Amino acid sequence: xxxxxxxxxxxxxxxxxxxxxxxxxxxxxxxxxxxxxxxxxxxxxxxxxxxxxxxxxxxxxxxxxxxxxxxxxxxxxxxxxxxxxxxxxxxxxxxxxxxxxxxxxxxxxxxxxxxxxxxxxxxxxxxxxxxxxxxxxxxxxxxxxxxxxxxxxxxxxxxxxxxxxxxxxx
Length: 170
Ligand code: NI
Prior knowledge:
Elements: H1 26-41, E1 46-48, E2 58-61, E3 71-81, E4 85-90, E5 100-105, E6 107-113, E7 119-125, H2 126-139, H3 150-169
Antiparallel strand pairs: 1-2, 2-3, 3-6, 4-5, 6-7
This protein binds nickel (II) ion.
Nickel (II) ion binds near residues 93, 94, 134 and 138.
C-alpha cells in the first residue's frame, strides 16, 4: 500500500483524457488499493486516477459516513441521466480549500467493471450521483471549477498558485 501524490489544479496533467483499462490485473488492483488509501487519508469521498497522474479509467468512491462502502469503478460509463438536475456544493482534492455550486443530473445509471473485471450496473442519486459525475469528468480531463465563471476560475488559479509558492518557501 502506498499514498500517492495528488496533482493540484491548475496542473496541466489534470486535463489529460484517460484511456480505457485494457486488462483488470494485479497492476490495476494495486492502483485501486493505493488510490483508496490516498482518498481515505486525504480525506475525500472520491478520487480519479487522473488526479494521481495515471491516465486510465479508474475511480474510487466512498460516500458513506463510516468509510465502509468503497466503490471501485473501472471503465465506468454513465448510460442514463435524468433530465431533473440538482445543485450541490462541490470540492475536490485537487482544488484544496475551494467549494462552489455545480448543477448536474439528479439521478444516473452507471455501467462499470469491478476490480475482478466483472460488469455491474447501478443507479445513483444524491451525493453518490454528484460524486460519480465529478470523478468521471476528471477522467475526461475536466475539473469542477471549469463549470464556474471565467472570473471565478482565474481567482481560484491565482489563489492556488499563491498557496503553492508559500508552501515552497515554508
Ligand atoms: Ni475532484
